[in-house]
Amino acid sequence: MLLGTERNGFLRSEDGGASWARLRAGLRSDRSGYSEIWDIDFSVSDPDVIMAATLDSPGPAAGPDAGAGLYRSTDGGQIWTQLNCGFSTSRVVSVRIDPSDPNVAVAGLEGGLPSFTGPGSGQYYPGGIYRTEDGGQNWSRVSVGLNDGRNGYVIMRMTQGNPPQLVTFGMNRNDFNENLGFMRSNDMGLTWEFFAPELQTKSIDGFDLSADGQSIYANEGGTYSGWVSKDAGATWSQGPILQVNGPIAVSPADPSLVIFASPGDIRRSTDGLASMNVVASGLGTVREIVFSASNPTVVYAETDGYVLYRSDDAGLTWRLLVKGREQVLNVQP
Questions:
Q1: 70, 4 contact by CB (below 8 A)
Q2: Which residue in 7, 87, 195, 205 is a FRET match for 55, CA 20 to 30 A apart?
Q3: Paired residues of 4 in beta bridges
Q4: What distance in Å separates the CA atoms of residue 71 and residue 43, rounded to the nearest whole number?
């Protein structure tokens, strides 16, 4: 189990959360600490291979002023290597590894103006979709459409098919009219097709899909209801207001079982967001919800302070697993 933090590297547990180790060997740091870990993916064919996307300010990906960008580990997260060759910016927001080949991966970068001052502060650093076939030693940009450099690809999901399908949403947070919207790839990022044009200019803050990609659930910011497709994005309906306002996760075993966050609580739907029950409350802001890849009855939810909760009954009940900041970061130097 690997948990990314905002400025403190990684937390790893090998015993189901009973004990934790702090890992950061190879990560670049500055006066504010390490870069924020935004996305993590494990290789299915070689679980020791892990890639992590870091959320720096848009900026140079190489040179003395480069941000963190993307890291890769080949020993289960003990040591990390920075791999930004070919990137247009160090703001990497998503990454997925080919289940059949740990050397093939696709990364999503987000374009924007930097938050720092000084040389290069007035330059726009474009985002884009990038692909590697040599374990991240070299990345090639994949052109996907007009304004693709002005979009960010913050969420990238993968189906469990053979071959797997990648799905992402291109969004410009400053101008939704420039959104590329939903797009998918059936060849691990070599080519992409657009779908769901009715959602293209919306603020899709989160989405997830079923194991086969037929059911897609999307969270449109500010609406508190979910968009639902049961035919791989061909048609969509907007569900009732269930306070969908945070991360959303679909069971890999049941496409109608959806667990999502609302401010301070976790909610569970067994009918594809037609209705829901509050299953945990008083948690603070929920930042992520993830089903276990090896056991669909196990679900994890993380809140501010790297507080991690676990469910062993597909989200019906929850228990505290670890207070990451208090019990690990404040204890291990």
A1: no
A2: 195
A3: 10
A4: 14
Look up residue 28 and give its two tokens: 């670049």
Which two three-digit tokens encode residue 242? 């269930």
Two structure tokens written together for 139: 């990345």
Give the contacts of 23 (CB within 8 A, at least 6 positions apart). Answer: 9, 10, 11, 12, 77, 78
How does DSSP classify residue 79?
B
Structure tokens at 181: 């919207």
Q: What is the pLDDT of residues 93-127, one digit of tens each?
A: 999 999 999 999 999 999 999 988 777 778 999 99
* pLDDT > 80? residue 281: yes
Q: Give the separation between CA 223 and CA 245, rounded to whole angstroms.
A: 8
197: exposed, middle or buried (Cβ count in 10 Å: 0-12, 13-18, 19+): exposed
Residue closest to 54 by CA, chosen among 84, 29, 90? 90
Residue carrying structure tokens 């892990």: 50
Name the residue among 264, 267, 245 with its Cα closest to residue 311.
Answer: 267
pTM to 2 decimal places: 0.96
- Residue at token pair 């502060």: 121
Which residues contact residue 9 at a Cβ distance below 8 angstroms, ignoring those fewer than 6 apart?
22, 23, 24, 27, 34, 37
Q: Which residues contact 78 (CB under 8 A, 6 or more apart)?
A: 23, 25
Rounded-to-integer distance, Cα 323 and Cα 305, Å:
7
pLDDT tens, 11-55? 999 998 999 999 999 998 887 789 899 999 999 999 999 999 999
